[in-house]
Design brief:
Helix 1 links the parallel strand 1 and strand 2. The protein is built from eight helices and seven strands. The protein has a seven-stranded parallel β-sheet, sandwiched between helices. Helix 4 runs parallel beside helix 5 and helix 7 crosses helix 8. The protein has one domain: Rossmann fold (3-Layer(aba) Sandwich), CATH 3.40.50.720. It comes from Heterotrigona itama. Belongs to the short-chain dehydrogenases/reductases (SDR) family. This is 17-beta-estradiol 17-dehydrogenase.
């Protein structure tokens, strides 16, 4: 697709796993994230392990359009064939829409991070892919984008935007040789103390990305992981038969997570 790949939100988890997987197959990697200090160490490690070039760019969400002008300048003249839009932001914990503390700031940050960043990164990097007649864009959404998601309303809505945006972008530019894929991952461990343990249904980021990469060019919208696809298929089937059962189940799960988080805050 090209000599360079761009990955946003790559300080840990799926984004970091994508950066390493792309470097492993010989692509130079541009790492973009608000946390550039951590990225410098990751970039050095990628260069040493895979003998590729790296570049670190800070995405300052507080600077508005100016931060995208900086990214455009820093990537100018580089043959970028792959873009992975992984940067995302969710709630501090599941909460009812009106009850989230500091909601006026948090909701705007979620919308900027999950909607504005994805849109602008595609705006910046898609033109050169169209000119060359080849390219790959992977937009990472979430399983909650296509399922009832009470107590995560704003987050889920922004990820639904990513799904719709990706589908229609593929229709517009697939004829130009550009592949636009949207991923709907379920739970993936991120190696933090609060992260769930990896297992049959919860892959490590590395295992998830290894699976997701195999779907490129085959599925435009996919969970990227067989077990997640089975889970979402079962939930959609039950929802068609009994919507209320899925809604009640999801509310119970989210309220349980909410209560656990509140107990941690108090403790």
């Amino acid at each position: 697709m090209g000599k360079w790949a761009v990955v946003t939100g790559c300080s840990h988890g799926i984004g970091r796993a994508y950066a390493e997987a792309l470097a492993r197959i010989g692509l130079n990697v541009i790492l973009i994230s608000p946390d550039t200090e951590n990225l410098k160490a990751i970039a050095s490690n990628i260069e040493a392990m895979y003998n590729v070039k790296t570049k670190v760019i800070k995405l300052d969400l507080s600077e508005g359009l100016e931060t995208y002008n900086v990214i455009e300048k820093e990537t100018f003249g580089l043959e970028i064939g792959v873009l992975v839009n992984n940067l995302g932001m969710s709630y501090p914990h599941p909460e009812y829409f009106l009850d989230l503390p500091h909601k006026e700031k948090i909701y705007m940050s979620i919308i900027h991070c999950n909607v504005v960043v994805v849109t602008n990164m595609c705006r910046i990097l898609l033109p050169q892919m169209v000119v060359r007649g080849k390219g790959l864009i992977v937009n990472v959404a979430s399983m909650v984008a296509v399922l009832p998601s009470p107590l995560l309303t704003v987050f889920a809505a922004t990820k639904a935007y990513v799904v719709k945006f990706s589908r229609d972008l593929q229709i517009e530019y697939g004829k130009h040789g550009v592949i636009v894929q949207c991923l709907l991952p379920g739970t993936v461990t991120n190696h933090t103390t609060e992260s769930p343990r990896s297992g049959w249904m919860v892959p490590t980021p590395e295992k998830y990305v290894q699976s997701a990469i195999r779907t490129v060019g085959k599925e435009n919208v996919t969970t990227g992981f067989l077990q997640h696809s089975v889970l979402i298929g079962i939930m959609k089937f039950i929802y068609r038969i009994s919507p209320s059962s899925i809604i009640v189940w999801m509310i119970n799960i989210m309220e349980g997570n909410r209560n656990n988080a509140l107990r941690r805050y108090i403790g």
